[in-house]
Amino acid sequence: MKNYKKLIGLMIIVTFILVAAGCGQEDSNTNDEEGTESVGEAVEYTITGIEAGAGITEATKNALSEYENLSGWEQETSSTAAMITELGEAIDNEEPIIVAGWSPHYKFAQYDLKYLEDPKGVYGEAENINTIARKGLEEDMPGAYTILDRFKWGVEDSEAFLLESLESEFEEVAQQWVDEHQEDVAEWTEGVEQVDGTELEIALAPWDSERAPANILKIVLEQHGFNVTLTTVDPAVMFEAIASGDADASPSAWLPITHSAFYEDYKEDIVDLGPNLEGAKTGLVVPSYMEIDSIEDLKAAE
């Protein structure tokens, strides 16, 4: 009889533990769901974007259509500067925010950020930034062609440069970078002969991420006697200028996605020297303290 009572007692205790554990698991799941829903509420179901005509703005529009869980969300477009300001203010107050972001960009050197996973691949895979040149440049200016072809650097190099340029002029930061990376420069310029004032025009897209390599190249090329002009233009004009010979080269071709349409239009009339930077990326970006990892973690607006 005593053994029977003990058995009943043990069964009651085990049942209580299992029920408590089940309730705890249910509460945990509920908290997770409430947490992701509260992200949407906290950011007012809004993604902070940049200029209306930017490629990432169009990609984000597509994301809002492709992901059913983003039903009722909106993209707020204004300017890159406004996006960065809002991002900084949110981080200062450790508040949630979701921005349309890209790398290389100094915000990744300035803040602890992460990309949200993009299971549907709306933003595409990581890209390269390629150097393109006009046909005939190798024959006309073999030294310049060699330097342009050999020029390579990394995403972290670029982002550190861009962060430094917030406090100094681009030209000053470029000179400092060249001074501190003489081994790289030596590899790019090995065997290149000096010229005497040969004119060279480099076209570049109107982004700081493109001004950085262009200014580095300008310094290195001028150290070898070229007279370099940097011309900032819209990407469509940039490709057209290289194809027509109005500009000599550009280190600003984002491929295979961002500038794919321009590349297809002009690929027969330009020379693709390949990547000068690998691992460029676009997507939705959040501060690392936010407990979400994927676009699919977000919940539709009610």
TrEMBL record:
InterPro entries linked: ABC_Gly_betaine_transp_sub-bd
The protein's name: Glycine/betaine ABC transporter
ABC-type glycine betaine transport system substrate-binding domain residues: 38-180, 199-300
Keywords: Cell membrane, Membrane, Signal, Transport
Taxonomic path: Bacteria, Bacillati, Bacillota, Bacilli, Bacillales
Subcellular location: Cell membrane
Domain of life, per lineage: Bacteria
Signal peptide interval: 1-21
Entry keyword Lyase: no
Pfam family, one: OpuAC
